[in-house]
Amino acid sequence: MWHRQKKSQNEENSVPVVPVKPSQAPAIPPKSGEKKSFKKRILQFSGLTSAHNVEGKLSAAEIKRLEETKNRLFKQGGAKSPERDPNDPLRSPLKTLTASPNQISQPSSSSTSPRSDMSSDLTYSLPKTFNIPNLSLPALESVQIKARDVVLHRNVAGDFGFTIRRIQYPITTENGTEISHLVFAEPVDHLNGPPRPSDLLNGLLPGDQLLQVEGRDVNRLKRDELLTLIQEAGQSIRLRVQVVPELAELATKTAVSGDQLQLFSQFKETDLNIPEDKRYWLVHSAGYSLVEVVDHQPDGLVKIKVADQEMTVDSSDLDKANPPNFDRANDIAALKNINETSAIHLLRNRLGSGLQYTSAGPRNLIYMASQSQEIKGLNQDLIRLFKGCRRSQMPAHIYTTAQQVYRQLQITSRPQSVVFNGVSGSGKSQQIRNFIEFLCGCAGWTKRLTYEEISLAIGILEAFGNCSTELNQNSSRFVQLISLGFDTASGLNSAKIQTLFLDLEKLTSRKPTDSTFHIFYYLWEGLDTKTFESLGFDLIDRPFFDENLSETDRNAASEAFHRVLEAFRNLNFSENQILAVQKVLAAILHLIYSGAQGNLATKSAFTRHSNAEKAADLLGISFDQLNLAVFKGSQNFDQSSRYKLVNQTGNEALQSFVQALYNELFGAITNQINKYLNKSTAFTTISLLDIPGSTFLNSTSEPADLSDFIYNYYNERISELFYKSNFKSPLDLYEREKVEVEVERPLATPAHLCRLIDRKQQLLNSADVEKRSEEPRGIFFVLEEESVFPGANENSLIERVFMHWEESKLVRRSPKDRFQFNLGHGLNQFSVGYKVNGWLKKIKPSGAIFALTQVLQNTESPYISELFTVPGLKEGSYKLRRATQSVNEIVASVGGGGGSFGGFFTAITSQFDHLISLLERSDRLHFIHCLQSVDGTRRSDLMDVSLVRSQLRAGLIMDSVRATNRGYPERMPFRDFRRRFQCLVKENYTNLSLSDTLDDRSAVKKIFEKMQIFEFRYRLGISQVLVRSDVLAELEEKRDLCLSGVIEAFQRECRLHLSRKWLEKRRIQEQAITCLQRNLSQYLKLREWPWWKLFVRVVPLLGVARADENEKQWKQQLQKLESQNSELKQSRNQMDEQLRDIENLLKTECQTSQNLANSLERESAMRVRLEAEIRHLKTKLVNLGWFMQIFEGFWEKF
Q1: How many helices (H) and strands (E) does the chain have?
Q2: CB 139 within 8 A of CB 290
Q3: pLDDT grade, residue 318 (50/70/90)?
Q4: How far apart are CA 395 and CA 668, in angstroms?
Q5: CA 672, CA 487: separation in Å to the nearest integer?
Q6: Per the record, which residues fall in region Disordered (predicted)?
Q7: SS3 assignment, position 216
Q8: Vertex 902, ends 898 and 907: CA angle to 5°?
């Protein structure tokens, strides 16, 4: 664990000082030998770049900067840099030499940097420690939101049109945890879209916090008192409210008086007086500080003024600062000077203002959770404000990105993808929930699928697949791809969750700081006494997990278990299936507790027979069947393999069976959830990828295990995908479209480490054995090969790894343990140690899945049979491994995988390759970067600058922002662009020729010329138009303005048509009313006339006579129909008799015909036989005649 370096408290005079290393005297001029070593390192520059496959070329400015730095070092010997061993192989001067004043990439301090003793091929220089008092981060005062007074009047319903919502949330103080209260006043009805100026001035907005009612503070009022105060108000009421930070930023952006961010003494007066061209950031070990450049000196030195002192520093220690009005910019790409320090300063100021989201270009969003706990439910009503908005209309937010993705899906009807990446504990899972919640609120008008249903499904999978680790109390231990399906009208109609690589090691062997899956704690604490005893838990004295929980944790686990049961029922799990899940979990607990004794699996037995018998009873099989399945395996498994059960111990076989059983349970639950969520066929999808966070920030001395190694590899593959999406693919597109764009690729790429891990053997079929053995291959496949070699162990594994990659600076031996190696993750920003003890056993094949398949198929329990359906037990769809198991359709789609042996890591890489291909085939790929602001073990400051700087570098975020600003990230085919924006140009097509009418490229160019879009903001390729990120937003606004007149005219015609229809209807109604009135007046005149009275009394009597006459007619008609029916019956009987006669005649004729056919067949057979006899006799006669001739000739001679 790294610790923050304390600043020196020594007082210094106002004289120029030089940077010094911690706990070291001021630097002295180097010796001549040191100068020579620095020169030698510079001369090695070209060799370093070529040896490590650095992609791209250096620009002319960067080469010039390298030459200047080289000359300065030749001249002065690097006296201003920290002294290091020039022959140190872990040090490369490349990044130090390529830094520029405006775009320097400064690393973390030596005391707080997550990098250990590792350096990459492209190493960042370490920040220096300057012996200056009061040198610290810029002051960050509390940012307040201006409250506004609103006067509301009673409406026709007699109320004021708003609701009161009161919530409670815990806050952490020095005295412990306290409960705080917030009261919200929100409008009952609010239009979708961004708030109007009238809403900001005279109305309430969703999420408004209520401060005062009629001048009285609501925090001092009870709920009943507050309601009484509102009810007793007159015709109007005066409220004081303030909006949530997102809307406060919107109010500031739109320059509407009202709610806005207020800065009190945010900058010192001396800081504000610094001219813009002299404002720089000084990067040091404690973070950064604002300085004023006094003079630029030769040899790359700069004289600055900081803390009322003047000093001389190296130009590489400075970053250009932005004006103060950019301190809370919405987008990093909008900064005037884009560099790491300015980006960190922006993130720090926004985080201090309660703004956790910041854009980093059109397709990248940075989320940084604050140190304090989030208040859940505050932003739920913001969905209506973000619904239907464009990116330029709303501040940076997860809802803005979700709306942008959904809008792109509506326009193109093509699949979209969003990737959530970050370290463990950075809030990825919660952001996925927020993303899905917005899509359900925005596109859930079909009511086929609600957010509550998806949330319940995710909650169930988290209960079965999440656990507590040192970095995260709710760490995801499986990869999930959530696909939201939409119909042709872009309405949400289905969802599908695909899971991959469940970390089953958490069941049997885990770190002391980790827990097992949450569901076991829920089950143990949440069962009632009767069920607890029926599952046999009274036979378990102590479960395999830690049951020493506090009373609060026990109550929380019990409540969580009941929520899981309720979620099962809401997702159409039957009671039998729920009981089967409980039985399988109980069987796993009994099997782990039962234990095994014996060095060989085939000769082992259970230690505690009572628990094993109970487990067999819960699974619906006999004890002998369970014992055979666990220790003897399955006959379907290849018993000729050297890795059959005879090579396993009893405990290993038992652990393998338990892991396979839990994996099967997890897959069955996922399949059942997908049956409910996947209600209809999707026309297009939005895919959300969530992978377990990287463990780069693990501060313990405990090395990472195999599952962490694979999860970190997955994170590196996501970084490689980000690199390809932001650098390689755009540059390839520019090349295909013949567009010249000066965008440089980063010198370091994640592909180096990815290939170091997963590089396959290319010379497998080569006849040259020596060349084939010397070919470098990834660590994954070295592990696979070692697992099949007889006599291989951890020592040989380590030696083979360094035999292939000893020259690489991304992998290093650990000085602490000979069975441990260190990898430089995140572009070598983080050094992670891996201990290989037990890895070879974990990846060897196991027959547990085949044995489990037979157990589940032969079970006599109807509950188990209902949960585990036979289609889910296809043996060919699983890779038989102990460490992890892959689940669901992703595995089936990948198949057995390729590679030299088709082993464990071949399946791992193949499955993730399938995921990557799904993401790459989408129309747009968006990234949500979740950064951790502070280390989980230290809460001393709002932000750990060195930690955030390392995460920005590891994610290539700043490089992608620069590439976006210099490139053209938005693209659209000419035909689509013309069809969408042709309305902006009024053109007379009668005067155009056919070729001009069909020329989309020329039409697109005319649109840009008419809209006065400068040429540097767009490029016309061969088939597509490439534009800057803000051009499409500008054209969309003009298009809306242009189409607004058409829409208004259309609405006017519609209203006119409806008015005419309503008028015609009113005329008919008036005529009917007039007719009724006239008839009613006549009736009033007639009702007193005697003859009318007589008529009224006689008319009912006439009905009796009419009824008799009608009855007589109906009887005559009935008799007629009966006679006709009898005649028809007689005719039918006659027809039936004739039919029977004909059938008898037909049967006789058929019999006669059959007899004749048989006679004909016999005659034909006899004829054939006689003809054959005749031919035979003729042949004999011929032969006899020939014999007689020979005999006569012989007789004559004789």
Answers
A1: 40, 32
A2: no
A3: very high
A4: 42
A5: 23
A6: 1-39, 71-122
A7: strand
A8: 75
Which tokens hold the place of 1095?
A: 């008529």
Structure confidence at residue 105 (pLDDT) = 34
Return the amino acid letter for 491.
G
User: Residue 1109 has what pLDDT?
Assistant: 82
Residues 121 and 114: their CA atoms lie apart, in Å, by 17
Q: What is the mean pLDDT of residues 16-37?
A: 35
With bands split at pLDDT 50, 70 and 90, how would you rate the model's confidence at 563? Answer: very high
Question: pLDDT tens for residues 1039-1073?
Answer: 888 888 888 889 999 999 999 999 999 999 999 99
- Cα 681 from chain centroid? 21
Residue 838 has pLDDT above 80, yes or no: yes
Q: What are the binding residues for ATP?
A: 422-429
Structure confidence at residue 106 as a pLDDT band (50, 70, 90) = very low
- Position 192: which residue type? N
Q: Give the domain range for residue 1176.
A: 1102-1196
Q: Which residues are CB-neighbours of 667 under 8 A, at least 6 positions away?
A: 499, 872, 887, 888
Asked if residue 21 has pLDDT above 70, the reply is no
DSSP string, 649-704: -HHHHHHHHHHHHHHHHHHHHHHHHHHHH--S--SEEEEEEE-PPB-TT--SSSPB
Cα dihedral across residues 962, 742, 722, 804: positive or negative? negative
Q: What confidence tens digit (pLDDT) does each residue in 624-656 have?
A: 999 988 888 755 544 444 445 446 788 888 999
- 1114 shares its domain with 1191: yes
Please give the pLDDT value at position 197: 58
* Among candidate residues 1050, 1082, 1100, the one where a domain is terminated: 1100
Tokens representing residue 560 in the block: 């969580």
When pLDDT is averaged across residues 696-704 and rounded to a whole number, the result is 75
- Judgement on whether residues 1144 and 1179 belong to the same structural domain of the protein: yes
The helix, strand and coil proportions of the chain, stated in percent and rounded to the nearest 5, come to 50, 15, 35
SS3 112: coil
pLDDT by residue (tens digit) across 512-537? 888 999 999 999 999 999 999 999 99
The backbone torsions φ and ψ at residue 749, rounded to the nearest 5 degrees and listed phi first, read -130, 150
Domain end among 343, 361, 378: 343
Polymer length of the chain? 1198
Q: Can you give the pLDDT at residue 1187?
A: 86
* Whether 475 contacts 425, CB under 8 Å: yes
* Residue 1084 CA to its chain's centroid (Å): 79
Confidence of residue 793 (pLDDT cuts 50, 70, 90): confident
Q: Which amino acid is at 461?
A: L
d(Cα 180, Cα 169) in Å, to the nearest integer? 6
- Residue 285 class from Cβ within 10 Å (0-12 exposed, 13-18 middle, 19+ buried)? buried
Tell me the two tokens of residue 172: 């952490």
Query: Which residues neighbour 877 within 8 Å (Cβ) at sequence distance 6 or greater?
Result: 891, 892
- Which sign, positive or negative, has the C-alpha torsion 883, 751, 949, 919? negative
Total Cβ atoms within 10 A of residue 455: 15
Q: Is 258 exposed, middle or buried (0-12, 13-18, 19+ CB in 10 A)?
A: buried
Residues 1092 and 1109 in one domain: no
982 and 1056 part of one domain: yes
Q: The domain that contains 208 carries what CATH number?
A: 2.30.42.10
Domain count, the chain: 5
Distance, in Å, from the CA atom of 586 to the CA atom of 615, rounded to the nearest integer, reads 7
Radius of gyration of the chain (CA): 42
| Dist. CA 227–CA 696, nearest whole Å | 51
**325 against 65, higher pLDDT:** 325
- Report the alpha-carbon distance of residue 1161 to residue 344 in Å, rounded: 103
What is the residue-wise DSSP string for 340-380? HHHHHHHHHHHHHTT--EEE-STTEEEEE--SSPP-TTSSG
pLDDT, tens digit (0-9, with 9 covering 90-100), for 340-353: 999 999 999 888 88
**Annotated binding-site ranges:** 422-429
pLDDT score recorded for residue 97: 26
